[in-house]
Amino acid sequence: MHTADIAASVLLLGIIVVSLLSNVVVLICFLYNPEIRKQVPGLFILNLTFCNLLLSVSNMPLTLVGLITKGHPGGSGFCQIVGFLDTFLTTNSMLSMAALSIDRWVAVVFPLSYHSRIRHRDAVIALGYTWVHSLCFSTVATCSSWVGYHQLYASCTLCNVRANGAGTQFIIFTVLLHSLTFLLTLIVLCVTYLKVLKVARFHCKRIDVITMQTLVLLVDIHPSVRQKCLDEQKRRRQRATKKISTFIGTFVVCFAPYVITRIIELFCPGPISPHWGVLSKCLAYSKAASDPFVYSLLRHQYRKTCSHLANKVLKRSPLNSSSRRVENSTGRNDNNSTTITTNNITNIQPPNNKPPVP
């Protein structure tokens, strides 16, 4: 094997492992926490997790096999099924990201009327559209025999070689597919998240004005406390920008190279480097590994659920761990401190404000 093929195989193997583990954790959190299941975005995240998991156990391993063996990973019928899943799952996951961005836009811009605007029924309708949209494109491609093993991407997907007899129809189909999935999702992401960013900056400015007025009034405030407030103010302004950049940036970085390569392949008959084709496919697969962190695991509710599950599996109580940390840090038991036992909280004493007796 070429060095680039070995590197691509290791990269793809790492993507498979991370994608499986992270998406399984998201699924466990969804099933374990009833509060997450009650939320409307949870349906979109569940659908996205389902697509990522199915992609991780079907298409990614076969691409790895095709990359290592440099050959067809299965029969023609089996490859068509895998190609059908490739088109369906990729399209479905993109539209799920668009639905999540619309949900967050409504939640931030219309917070008081969010529950009346976005209900579980509306989420089910949106998910129904994503499934119908994805099924239509993947079914048309499979029934037209445009799906097969593509050597450039070392995977079973839309194949130009199998569509030589229907050149114009295949070009129109491919352009429509990427326009109504990648381009449409990118436009929705940019419009909704930029509006969210605008609202977040407006609220940050209001908080900054209140903070500065408070700092001016508190003349005797310690300089370190003042600097801490200013640093928190700066981090607050940057936090929203980082989150929005992560949502849009990961989508563009992961999917844009693959989509652009597909379009170039249609209109430029010249040869494309197979190493670049495999790399662009691996980048598209990497979105399945990054989605759990971008949309779920970095949020407070999921982190809290993961921590609770970890404590439950390790058979330890959060109170025990915090008690041990306090005792280790102090090294002694103070009469004015809060005593935490393994079973309950006892002996909570108020601080003694009386002066010491000489």
From TrEMBL:
An example Gene Ontology CC term for this record: plasma membrane
Ranges of biased composition (kind: Polar residues): 318-332
PROSITE patterns to which the protein is assigned, alphabetical: G_PROTEIN_RECEP_F1_2
CDD domains in UniProt: 7tmA_GPR26_GPR78-like
Listed transmembrane segments: 6-32, 44-68, 94-114, 126-149, 169-196, 244-264
Occurrences of domain G-protein coupled receptors family 1 profile (ranges): 22-295
Cross-referenced InterPro entries: GPC_Orphan_Receptors, GPCR_Rhodpsn, GPCR_Rhodpsn_7TM, GPR26/78-like
GO molecular function term, any single one: G protein-coupled receptor activity
Localization annotation: Cell membrane
Membrane topology type: Multi-pass membrane protein
GO BP annotation list: adenylate cyclase-activating G protein-coupled receptor signaling pathway
Domain of life: Eukaryota
Pfam family, one: 7tm_1
Keywords in alphabetical order: Cell membrane, Disulfide bond, G-protein coupled receptor, Membrane, Receptor, Transducer, Transmembrane, Transmembrane helix
Compositional bias of kind Low complexity: 333-351
Coiled-coil residue spans: none
Function according to Swiss-Prot or TrEMBL: Orphan receptor. Displays a significant level of constitutive activity. Its effect is mediated by G(s)-alpha protein that stimulate adenylate cyclase, resulting in an elevation of intracellular cAMP.
Cited PANTHER family: G-PROTEIN COUPLED RECEPTOR, G-PROTEIN COUPLED RECEPTOR 26
Protein name in UniProt: G-protein coupled receptor 26
Organism, as annotated: Myripristis murdjan
Record lineage: Eukaryota, Metazoa, Chordata, Craniata, Vertebrata
